[in-house]
Amino acid sequence: MTDAASPISKPYPLGVSLLPSGEADVAVYSETADSITVVVVDDNGAEVSSTVLAERTGHVFHGFVADLGPGSRYGLRVDGPWNPAEGLRHNRNKLLLDPYARAIAGGVEWNEAVFSHHHEKPDEFNDADSAGSMPLSVVTSSDFDWGSDSPPRIPLDRTVVYEVHVKGFTATHPDVDESIRGTYAGLAHPAAVAALVDLGVTSVELLPVHQFVQDSHLLEENRRNYWGYNSIGFFAPHNEYSSAGDAGGQVDEFKSMVKALHAAGIEVVLDVVYNHTAEGNHLGPTLSLKGIDNGSYYRLVDEDRSSYFDTTGTGNSLNVGHPAALALIMDSLRYWVTEMHVDGFRFDLASTLTRQDADLDKHSAFLDLVHQDPTLASVKLIAEPWDTQGYQVGGFPARWSEWNGKFRDDVRDFWRGEPGSLGAFAQRVTGSPDVYEGSRRPTLASVNFVTAHDGFTLADLNSYDDKHNDDNGEDNADGESDNRSWGCGAEGPTDDEGVLALRARQQRNHLATLLLSAGVPMILGGDEIGRSQNGNNNAYCQDNELSWFDWSTADGPLREFTADLIGLRAAHPALRPVWFRRGSDSDSADTVDFYRADGERFGDEDWTDDTALSMLIRMAAAADDTAFAWMVNSSSTPVEFTLPEAQWSQRLSSDPDQKYDTGEPTILIREHSFTLVTTPTS
Predict the structure, then answer these.
(1) Main-chain dihedrals φ then ψ at residue 68, nearest 5 degrees
(2) Given 541, 575, 609, which residue is the final one in a domain?
(3) Residue 344 shares a structural domain with residue 490
(4) CATH code: domain of residue 223
């Protein structure tokens, strides 16, 4: 009989829970394991102790471990059947990461020991011990002085997202201490925070910061995974971004970064990769989930359970039809909100997370769980609404916003002068009502972007006609062949003043379209200073100066132009409507009207004119005292516009030579440029 005064091990929460007694309660989920052992490892890599989790509740193994405290390093050994044909891949010779580890020390040392099978023999059991070649889970304390920290809770209509890499932003920043450049502490440095505040962005969207694995083939070729879409620890901040080392200090350093950004009024949104892990397919390593409970955590092919159902292009997909995988994702999300104080998430390949079976499902268990979770009710949720098997833009529930790939494509088409692009452009700048209005979703469902990490930078979009990815070592066969880029004449660097002037206008055209359109704008970090990757549109493996911000060559005037646009948007509700606006023939004071260059409103026949590449967009809002007339001309010749009757004055233009005299009824807009004029509405 158990002594009533004795503590009882608990099956939840999973992972390590520190107890006042000095012991730790450890819980691990597995439906198929026979036993699970917690191995404590010292700083020299020697095993200090091994403790079998002696209790079992349902499918959770749990028990007390005496040698675990803050800073302790440990791994799991999971014993059970090895039968790949049935999806069973247990191998107690592999020291595994705890899926619920709050921190991870070290990285994978690539050799055959980290595989449960022998190379090129996927069905042959490999009994080599992986201890010494594996990263280790680290126990952390939840103690942290958050002080008066509170989430900024920026409304979506006032949100300007800035997609940025933790390392790349400060790796060469001259005003950030060299010892912390490229780290969480670097991003929290006053100079880094000031750069964001001065620009005016409200929310940083950080490329993946969950612990990820460096790919073996890249290391062999002296390259590294820079982007980080290769997760292995959904609770652990990536240790290479920590100036405090990887013995658990990365957790407090991440929290300090969030606290500093919050103090400046800036939200932290994480780009999260829950759709797959770094363990790959049947030929991949056994690092964590694969050796703990392969079939519960990964989607296997029904007809051949040795193979993985893959809609991510990485070898595996998480089994979001299973409660264990769903619990792992939901527990992780709640942890980052409650313990790490983040303000939202952008879900990589989010469509994969809706595939309970093979098909996309708007009412999947994952979406339903997120919808009803009170912890997630107040944070931003942004979907990348596609995967390798489907495109789901407009298909997510009302609670969500989405990366709008149609905005990117149609805006690029318009500004490169693609015939017939005017109608689609009009849809995009008004919040994509053709995508969202029918399902009663607001303009804020659309996260608008022209460039993102996985493609050209804005400077390169307007400098190169095609990708130049030779540095990636894949014969320029990787990355999308971007047929929506336009090099503005001479490709790459040039001294031609006309070409340089055109590129400058085009960068401003794209930024203005992004920041004057309805929806939630997302700026690719560095676009505001003219950052270039020399035409590389897939710099995932370029952890070097090619990807890092070069602050020494920053385009100051472009940055000032961008900040001016962001400030203008913030000041005027007419530029950031929550709902779709009707024309001036309605009773609403929130209006958007489209005019031809001759001053006549667009008719049905005008939208089918493939030669039309210019128009005037008039915007006004009941809550504002200013109306805007935005004239866009993507044609190769100047166009004279007749303005709606009012006392207009010039506010902004991509043409530095544009001079408009207030009160004139017409204005000449040069080729490939825009001009914005304003007037009081009263």
Answers:
(1) -110, 125
(2) 575
(3) yes
(4) 3.20.20.80
Given the structure tokens 């935005």, which residue do they identify?
630
**580 within a domain of the structure (yes/no):** no
> What's the token pair of residue 84?
């790949």
3-state secondary structure (DSSP) of residue 137: strand
Going by their DSSP bridges, the two strands 446-448 and 390-391 should be labelled as unpaired
Cβ burial of 12 (10 Å; 0-12, 13-18, 19+) is: middle
Rounded CA-CA distance 240/529 in Å is 26
> Residue 194 in contact with residue 517, Cβ under 8 Å?
no
Distance CA 548, CA 533 (A): 9
Last residue of a domain, one of 543, 575, 607: 575
Section 331-356 average pLDDT: 95
| Phi (first) and psi of residue 351, to 5 degrees | -60, -35
Distance CA 667, CA 661 (A): 9
pLDDT tens digits along 574-629: 999 999 876 554 555 678 999 999 999 999 999 999 899 999 999 998 888 899 99
163 contact partners, CB below 8 Å, separation of at least 6 = 205, 207, 271, 449, 452, 453, 522, 523, 524, 525
The 10s digit of each residue's pLDDT in 47-97 is 999 999 999 999 999 999 998 999 999 999 999 999 999 999 999 999 999
Kindly state whether residues 215 and 124 are assigned to the same domain.
no
> Which structural domain range is residue 116 located in?
15-138
Distance CA 514, CA 156 (A): 15
In a domain, residue 675? The reply is yes
The band of 389, judged by pLDDT with boundaries at 50, 70 and 90, is confident
Rg of the chain on CA atoms, in Å: 27
**Residue 551, token pair as written in the block:** 């602050």
Q: Which residues pair with 614 in a beta bridge?
A: 633
Q: What is the pLDDT of the chain when averaged over all its residues?
A: 94
Do 569 and 426 sit in the same domain of this protein? Answer: yes
- 166, 127 Cβ separation under 8 angstroms: no
Q: Please choose, from the candidates 321, 315, 433, the residue with its C-alpha nearest in 3D space to the C-alpha of residue 367.
A: 321
Residue 654 has pLDDT above 60, yes or no: yes
Statement to judge: residues 627 and 562 lie in one domain:
no
398 and 487 belong to one structural domain: yes
Give the DSSP H or E segment for 75. Answer: strand 73-79
As annotated, the active-site residues are 348, 384
Q: Are residues 627 and 515 in the same domain?
A: no
CATH number of 650's domain: 2.60.40.1180
Residue 302 in any domain: the answer is no
Q: Cβ(152)–Cβ(266) under 8 Å?
A: yes
Residue 6 pLDDT greater than 70, yes or no = no
Residue 115 and residue 173 share a domain: no
Q: 35 and 173 in one domain?
A: no
Please check whether residue 525 lies inside any domain of the structure.
Answer: yes
For residue 5, name the pLDDT band (cuts at 50, 70, 90): low
Total-model pTM: 0.96
- pLDDT for 286 equals 98
What CATH number does the domain containing 112 carry? 2.60.40.10
Q: What mean pLDDT do residues 278-300 have?
A: 97
Altogether, the residues listed in the chain come to a count of 682
In the chain, how many domains are there? 3
